[in-house]
Design brief:
- The chain is an alpha+beta fold and 337 residues long.
- Helices cover 26% and strands 23% of the residues.
- It has helices spanning 21-24, 40-45, 49-57, 96-105, 122-125, 182-185, 215-221, 267-277, 283-298, 321-335; strands at residues 30-32, 64-70, 77-78, 89-95, 114-121, 143-149, 152-157, 162-169, 172-177, 223-227, 232-235, 240-245, 250-257.
- The strands form two sheets. It has an eight-stranded antiparallel sheet. It has a five-stranded mixed sheet with strand order 3-7-12-9-10, with helices on one face.
- The longest helix has 16 residues, at 283-298.
Amino acid sequence: MLAIDRHIDEVPVTEPGKVPEAVFGSGDPLVLRGLVHDWPITRAGTTTPAATESYLMQFYAGASVNAVYSDPSHRGRVFYDENVTGFNFQVVSSRLDKVLDDIRAQSHATEPSGIYVGSTEIDRVLPGFRSENDLRLEAEDPLAFIWLGNHSRIAAHFDVPDNIACCVAGRRRFTLFPPSEIVNLYPGPIDFTPAGQIVSMVDFEDPDFDRFPRFRSALEKARVADLEPGDAIYIPSLWWHHVEGMNALNVLVNYWWRRAPAFMDTPMNVLEYALLCIRDLPASEREGWRSLFHYYVFDFDPNDVEHIPRERLGILAPFDDHAARKLRAQLLKKLNR
C-alpha cells in the first residue's frame, strides 16, 4: 500500500442526505463523513453482506448487469493484459442475483477471483431504490449509478462530470491527484481503455519506479481518503482517482453532473480532434495555435471583442441552445466534406 501522508480535506455534514453548499463551489476534493449514514442500504451495509444482498434484492426487477470477472492472480485489479492487446478480465452479462451469489462464493477464498459491477444505472436495475436512498441534488440534475463487487482495484482515471461517491457497504480507499499531474501518472491509450476512461498505467499496489520514475513526483501531490459505510467523497471534474474496494462485498452509489449548459458537448471531443488537427504541426505553428486558443478559449475576455459590432460577433457571442445547434450543424457539414 502506498504511503501517502496528505489526506483529503473534510467538510462537516450538518444534515444527513444534504450536501453542504461549500461542495458545489469547491475546485478541490472533499470528504463528507456520515453524509448517507441514515440510508437503509447503509444500515444494512454496516451489518452483514447477507443483509446488504437482501436489501438490494428487494428492488431487483431482473434487468441484466455487466459483470467483470478476473483471475485471482490479478488481486482485483481491473486492467489491461500484459501486452496491452486486450484486458485481464472477462465481461459477462448476467442477472444481479447471480453476480451476488458468485461474490458470496468467493468470500472465504484465500485468493478470491475478482468480481466487479461498475457504472450501473440505478433506476434501470433497482427501480424504487432511490425512493429510500438518495441525495438532494435537484439543482444539479445528476445521473445516479451503483457499483459493487468484492476486492477491487480500479486504475487511476478521470471523469469529465463532477462526482459525489457514497460508500454504503464495505470500505473504500480513494487516492486522488490534481489534473496537472497527468504527465506523472503515465496515462494509457485514449481510444482503447478498460472501461471507457483513460487510465494510469501505474500499478498502485506495486509501482515500478524504474519504468515510471515520474510517479514519485505524482505521489508528492497525492491525497488519500479512507471511507467507511455512510461516508462520501466529492471528486471535481478531471481529478484523477484510484479506487480500491477493501471488503468481501463493497457497494458504492455515485452521482455525476456537469456545471455546464446541456447544449455544450464534452470537451473530450475537442481534445481528440485537436490530436488530428494540431498535435503534429510544426512547432512554430503549434505555438501560434496555442496563442489563438488562449485568446479565444482559455483566457477569453468579452472586453477584448468590444471593437466588433454586436450583431457581427457570431460565435464569439454568448451561446444559447439555438446558437449551439447552429454551430454544431456547421461543424458537421465541414467534417463530412
